[in-house]
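Researcher: Re-running this chain for the archive, since the previous output was lost when a drive failed. Same request as before.
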Amino acid sequence: MTTAVMRESDRAEAGDQQTLVERLSSAIQGDILEGKLRPGDRLEEPVLSRKYAVSRTPIREALRQLASTQLVEIRPRAGAVVASPTAGEIIDLFELVAELEGVAARLATERLENSDLAAIEDAHSVCQKAARGDDAAAYYRVNGDFHLAIHKAAKNLVLLKEIRALDMRLSPYRRFITFRAGRTQMALREHDQILRALQKRDSSLAQAAMSDHVRILGEDAVGLVKGLRVG
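Model: Regenerated structure tokens:
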């Protein structure tokens, strides 16, 4: 009886520890995706341990989890840092996500239901309203909602998962580009083209418009790498 109780207790403790690691991982990931931690920033265990009022052990495990998503790099003798790919790697990532988002737009057009189109149109309208304000961070968030509405309309969970994983890695760079002067209005015009293609049920045009939209971001990679001092 005692052994059985101990085993149950051990399992509960392990579960609590895993939950803590997941919470820490999510918190650190959020700081990276929101630009509070920039590419190349060191993730020092003692600092994070004090910040989150936990021991270094769950911090270390959370950083390992983030390393598996390639948001964090574990470097010999240097410890953990926010991932900082080279300009060439960033361009490669943008090229890949541009192709995947293009496929999502094509599939969305082919599988579009009225409710899907309404969600995409609503997201576009919210983007337009956000663009009239001065809050670039707010626009960045609703811009993501526009893309997500199209991804969901594609009705391919594997594709959605792959795009999400790549987008997490690119988030600091997409955010940097979005905040550049004049980029918001250009992005809205590109969104218009994508939406019109969806409304016309023109899958080829939707795919090309979406791929071009994301690839245009990638062409700014060299400038943003210099701005972020990575690579």
